[in-house]
Design a protein that fits this description.
Order of helices and strands: HHHHHHEEEEEEEEEEHEEHHHH
Strand content: 15-25%
Largest sheet: 4 strands, mixed
Structural class: alpha+beta
Strand order of the largest sheet: 3-6-7-10
Organism: Parafilimonas terrae
Shape: globular
Family: Belongs to the acyl-CoA dehydrogenase family.
Bound molecules: acetoacetyl-coenzyme A, flavin-adenine dinucleotide
CATH architecture of the largest domain: Up-down Bundle
Cofactor: FAD
CATH topology of the largest domain: Butyryl-CoA Dehydrogenase, subunit A, domain 3
CATH superfamily of the largest domain: Butyryl-CoA Dehydrogenase, subunit A, domain 3
Oligomer: single chain
GO molecular function: acyl-CoA dehydrogenase activity; flavin adenine dinucleotide binding
Distance between the termini: 25 Å
Number of domains: 3
Radius of gyration: 21 Å
Keywords: FAD, Flavoprotein, Oxidoreductase
Length: about 375
């Protein structure tokens, strides 16, 4: 594995770092407190080409590789995981899913503006609707139905916990057409949020990533034209699983960013804060914490780059993305907790950021497949 980043990768890293510090950092505490969606930041990310990073230029994307994407995701997540989850869902679940499996017409109509993050100058992003109130990890047991009515489908049911739920214009919806066929009876559809019969529930009041807008979405006799189905009849579950393998690389990058942000803040603080006549970084107990954090952050980065390179080089990445996600998210939770400890009482208040990193870290162990689900995926790859 060649780990030397190219000039282009280093430029993307610098651009993302600058963006995070100049555009995301100001106001990040207030957005978290007030649960305010980072619309201004997402529009600026769109201008940078970061909302459709891996999409071919002919569909409005930046035409970059997965490694570029994870490098950018890490930098933005160091500062603002609410903004980076929006970026991750649009890039790796929505845009990648449409580019890999959509028809030419679907790509022209939906992918092109989604990859640009804008349509007619307005925010234009997507959401991925798989989970339901009674079906999260056990995604095949979903209850939402898509009844085949000839030239259209009729969707009924409720999706839960949908990231970008109210900000998105386009939903990728998984629903059951023929329950008797199990996972092969599920279809995936492109649905526009403003179609009749769709109701967006209230914004969830969350522990972390509070700026991100998470909503339940109800479907009541929503008519979806047949041409908006993705792939062949019954392809919906495989679509979701394949898309999630890529999505997990994005969330692993988010988790890595949170862990690396916790480390950077902790090193800076430990050099400044004095106790017993010396900077706390000179106490071996603190130095060992930082050493362990740095080691685990580096290991998470290596696993992440490996998964990104597997995807870029056409190798199977279902297991490597699961490994990257489970390791990076557990590192994020642990490193952010250590960061609070290193900051002492100051770590417990908002202005030092690390308590937010700790709250934000937790979700990376839950969404896009819990840590237990990642272990199921990895375990099955060994059988
Ligand atoms: N690629 C291609 N096909 C795949 C696949 C993959 N990665 N994983 C599974 N499949 C196929 C299987 O081969 C199988 O097909 P066949 O019947 O033809 O062999 C079919 O899909 C069913 O697979 P399983 O029998 O393995 O399915 P399962 O019911 O045992 O579930 C699971 C497996 C891994 C637990 C899966 O249900 C899962 O990933 N659950 C977690 C769901 C999840 O990650 N949700 C995230 C929602 S999005 C989100 O969270 C976004 C956000 O927060 C920002
Ligand atoms: P459950 O599946 O009920 O799991 C409960 C516990 O049991 C977990 O610890 C789980 O790991 C464990 N468990 C379950 N089955 C097994 C098993 N077989 N073996 C071992 N342990 C098991 N979903 C979307 O579709 N789109 C989104 O955009 C989206 N965004 C989200 C944003 C947020 C903030 C949150 C909180 C969730 C989001 N989700 C989204 C849903 C998320 O993917 C699910 O919450 C997740 O997949 C877990 O499902 P669940 O909550 O139903 O937990």
């Amino acid at each position: 594995m060649n780990l030397d980043l190219s000039e282009e990768h280093l430029m993307i890293q610098q651009a993302a770092r600058d963006f995070a510090n100049t555009e995301c950092l100001p106001g990040v505490i207030e957005r978290d407190e007030k649960m305010r969606f980072p619309k201004e930041q997402v529009l600026k990310l769109a201008d940078l080409g970061f909302m459709g990073m891996m999409v071919n230029e002919k569909y409005g994307g930046a035409g970059l590789d997965t490694l570029s994407y994870v490098i950018a995701m890490e930098e933005i997540s160091k500062v603002d995981a609410s903004t980076s989850v929006c970026m991750s869902v649009n890039n790796s679940l929505v845009c990648w899913g449409l580019e890999a499996f959509g028809t030419e017409k679907q790509k022209q109509q939906y992918l092109t503006p989604l990859a640009q993050g804008k349509k007619d100058g307005e925010l234009y992003i997507g959401a991925f609707l798989l989970s339901e109130p009674e079906a999260g990890s056990d995604a095949t047991s979903q209850q939402t139905t898509a009844e085949d009515k000839g030239d259209y489908y009729l969707i009924n049911g409720t999706k839960n916990w949908i990231t970008n739920g109210s900000s998105a214009s386009v939903y990728l919806v998984m629903a059951q057409t023929d329950r008797s066929k199990g996972s092969k009876g599920i279809n995936a559809f492109i649905v526009e949020k403003n179609w009749p019969g769709i109701t967006v529930g209230p914004k969830e009041n969350k522990m972390g990533i509070r700026g991100s807008d998470t909503h339940s979405i109800q479907f009541n006799d929503v008519k979806v034209p047949k041409e908006n189905r993705i792939g062949e009849d019954g392809f919906g579950f495989k679509f979701a699983m394949q898309v999630l393998s890529g999505g997990r690389i994005g969330i692993a990058a988010q988790a890595l960013g949170i862990a690396a942000g916790a480390l950077e803040r902790s090193v800076a603080y430990a050099k400044e804060r004095k106790s017993f006549g010396k900077p706390i970084i000179d106490h071996q107990a603190i130095q060992f914490k930082l050493a362990d954090m740095a080691t685990r952050v580096e290991a998470a980065r290596l696993l992440l780059y490996k998964a990104a390179l597997d995807k870029d080089n056409g190798r199977n990445y279902a297991a490597s993305s699961a490994m990257a996600k489970v390791f990076a998210s557990e590192t994020a939770m642990w490193a952010a907790t250590e960061a609070v400890q290193i900051h002492g009482g100051y770590g417990y208040v908002k202005e030092y950021h690390v308590e937010r990193l700790m709250r934000d870290a937790k979700i990376t162990q839950i969404y896009e497949g819990t840590s237990e689900v990642q272990r199921i995926v990895i375990g099955r790859s060994l059988q």
